[in-house]
Amino acid sequence: MNNDSRVTENLLKDGSTLVFLKKRYLSKETKEQLDWVLSCMKDSILIVPTLPGSGKPDMLERDDGARFLPVFSNMGEIPADYADEFILKEMDIEACLELMRGTEGCRGLALDGLTEPLVLESNLAESIRTKPSRKEEGSV
Fold first, then answer.
1. Is 135 a domain residue?
2. What does DSSP assign to residue 80?
3. Is residue 76 part of a domain?
4. CA angle 6, 125, 73 (to 5 degrees)
5. Which residues neighbour 52 within 8 Å (Cβ) at sequence distance 6 or greater?
6. Per the domain annotation, does 19 fall within a domain?
7. Number of structural domains in the chain
8. Taking a C-beta distance cutoff of 8 angstroms, is the pair 14, 73 a contact?
9. Angle between helices 31-43 and 16-28 (to 10 degrees)
10. Which residues on adjacent β-strands are paired with residue 89?
11. Is residue 116 a part of any domain in this protein?
């Protein structure tokens, strides 16, 4: 994919494009690959686990105690036993960032945090808003 490549909504729909881009970034860890992941997150609908009753989001905690909002690219990245414990909500990146900001002690987002995680500290997560969309206008 070059910088002029565009993706269609169908390519984004099942989350497989985001998973592909995330895995490519995790193997190469270049700025260009990260930019592709962040742009794809901007254009994607993510899955966020929330607690039944309260509607508050689940949080994933690192060994150092830092807490992150889990966001998932697709259902295949969520273990079934984990999914059964929560109400899974589909959200765009703006809603995810708002939830991250509004959750006390949250340090960022954890994309696919229970399989092959990509942890985005809050400043990097917030930068998604400034990334260019790579989705084709009016695509289906």
1. no
2. H
3. yes
4. 60
5. 86, 87
6. yes
7. 1
8. no
9. 160
10. 48
11. yes
Instruction: Answer yes or no: are the C-beta atoms of 108 and 124 closer than 8 Å.
Output: yes
Domain that holds residue 111: 9-129
For 81-132, what is each residue's pLDDT tens digit? 999 999 999 999 999 999 999 999 999 999 999 999 999 999 999 999 999 8
> What is the enclosing helix (H) or strand (E) of 72?
none
Residue corresponding to tokens 């959200």:
91
What single letter denotes the amino acid at residue 33? Q
- The predicted-structure confidence for 25-72, as pLDDT tens digits, reads as follows 999 999 999 999 999 999 999 999 999 999 999 999 999 999 999 999
Supply the DSSP string of 103-133, one letter for each residue. STTEEEEEETTTSS-EEEEHHHHHGGGGSPP
* pTM of the predicted model as reported, rounded to 2 decimal places: 0.89
* Matching residue, tokens 């690192």: 62
Tokens (6 digits) for 24 = 């490519």
Tokens of 110: 């954890």
Residue recorded with tokens 């070059």: 2
